[in-house]
Amino acid sequence: MLTAAGIGAGDEVIVPSYATADAAEAVRRAGARPVFADIDPWSLCLDAASVAATVSLRTAAVLPVHLFGRRADLPALRAVADKRGLLVIEYEPLESAHEGTRRRQEAAAYLNARLTGLLTPAVTPGTEHTYRSYVVRVPGNGRPDRDAFARALRARRVRCHVPVQTPVHRTPAFRRELWLAETERAADQCLALPVDAGTPERELHRIVSACNALGGLLKVPA
């Protein structure tokens, strides 16, 4: 899509660093240079204000990535792009609705209402979250607390994983000397809990019991 849009050598394309490297690699394959902007702390997708601050004379496009079943704020990103004559190309279109989406949303609602000590996924009015991954934040002292929490959950036989281990701009292939505060914070705090369309309620109850038994530095109201 980038090549078809005429993007190539000498162009820059703004991508998120809090994601897989796929978008940055696609930009590089087109002959352009990926440039990293920060994320919105709630959606974990590209932040329009950071994109606006990152635009240069070489910027040709913005490549938002929909993450974990949550959409990037396309209207805000397009407003920034339109002012500067840039393209907005969705790299990873949101999955289409299917039977599993409703069940995942119900499971997420169950957890959102019962988990304490964690920051659960936020959904703003007028937006949808399909919860391809159920990603929470473990507040506290960043990565040490998050990793300790994950180890404690695994000891209680609750599967969990860090959804983005290393932001793309800190990987050897795309290393940049820049500080993306929200990206770094998300990489240090986020943890994906085992929620999918087939998770029974008794398993959700076990996840809640295990998480809440560990306490937490923050009490999150239901």
UniProtKB/TrEMBL annotation:
What's the protein here called? DegT/DnrJ/EryC1/StrS family aminotransferase
Q: Which family does it belong to?
A: Belongs to the DegT/DnrJ/EryC1 family.
Keyword hit for Transmembrane helix: no
- Known Pfam families for this protein? DegT_DnrJ_EryC1
Q: Which UniProt keywords apply?
A: Aminotransferase, Pyridoxal phosphate, Transferase
The organism named in the record is: Streptomyces stramineus
Entry's Gene Ontology molecular function annotations? transaminase activity
Looking up PANTHER family in the UniProt record yields: 3-OXO-GLUCOSE-6-PHOSPHATE:GLUTAMATE AMINOTRANSFERASE, TRANSAMINASE
So which residues are the signal peptide here?
A: none
